[in-house]
Amino acid sequence: MAVYAAHLTRTLQGTPSIFQIAAQEALGSTIKPALKRLIEYFSSVYPNKCGWCERWYDELYLLLDFCLQYHYLKHYAASFSECFYGLLRVPISPSNEFHSGTRLPERLEKGSLILLVLVPYLKEKIEQIVEKWREDNEDGNLGKSTGDLARKSAIKLYSITHFVLETAKLVQLARYLTGRTVSPALELAFLGLTVKDAPPPEPEEYTWSDLFKSLRAGHISDASLSFPLLGRGLLTAVQYGAFAVQLLRWWEARAPPITSLPLPKPPEKTEHALRWKNKCPVCLQPWKVPTVLPVSGYVFCYGCVSRHVRTNGTCPVTRLPTSEHTLVRLYPGV
């Protein structure tokens, strides 16, 4: 009876809006790219000391993400981004309700941890492998051997699987909007969870404002800096730091479109240009699938320019900003 009453108390709380769901998902996808930029900077400045961090960044982030998500699941029954937007995970069935305080049952906690940390890591590794095979296929490096045919089949299978999963996520979200399901995401539905607005946090006995008030008043003996206080301060800094990074990415996206840039001057015919005529400026070999970059007018191999633009967002020669969707393939023999 007590378990069922607790379940009613949780489920009667407000249902999160679609904007809260979308915002917490966007926040969760912001942290890893932001940290990667920071690691890349330190690796370029201190290559001997920090170069290994860039090589093992995925594994280092896996460890960091595991610790962060485990802490929030254990203490707040929510992921890092869900907790930031005042949400918590709630079992749909009253038989799976909380056993101790706000902590999820052990099975659901472990399942949430796997889907939040391990599955995205494996997915990204698979994407990297498939992307390499796709680039090899576009460059014409995959032949008709058994292994190459298997790689081509894997590329098609991955594309189909990715499309089906994204469609299923969209359908799940649409059903949540129309009230046909209480789980806004497939991962939550798989575990039998939903998200609700978290109750107001209990007031803390000793906060940072109390510490600063004691220092300003000169009561040094009353000022105490404890590990829980430091931990709360660190987690708060991580939360708002991630939100600030998300805000900066939004501001960067508001930059004027590429079409508004001034037209570049045509390249001059130098001795170097004549020497490498009809060759890719990146690999200095005859073009494989010739592709022009409209922002600069240079022609590259499709594989060379697509990799560079995808990674750097600029033309390999002029360094003008561009994007992958502006690439135009050429068919000189047609």
Automatic annotation (TrEMBL):
Pathway: Protein modification; protein ubiquitination
Domain RING-type: 280-318
Pfam family, one: Pex2_Pex12
GO molecular function: ubiquitin-protein transferase activity; zinc ion binding
Annotated compartments: Peroxisome membrane
Coiled-coil ranges (or none): none
Any single GO BP term: protein import into peroxisome matrix
Location, primary (coarse class): membrane
Keyword Metal-binding applies: yes
Protein name: Peroxisome assembly protein 12
GO cellular component entries: peroxisomal importomer complex; peroxisomal membrane
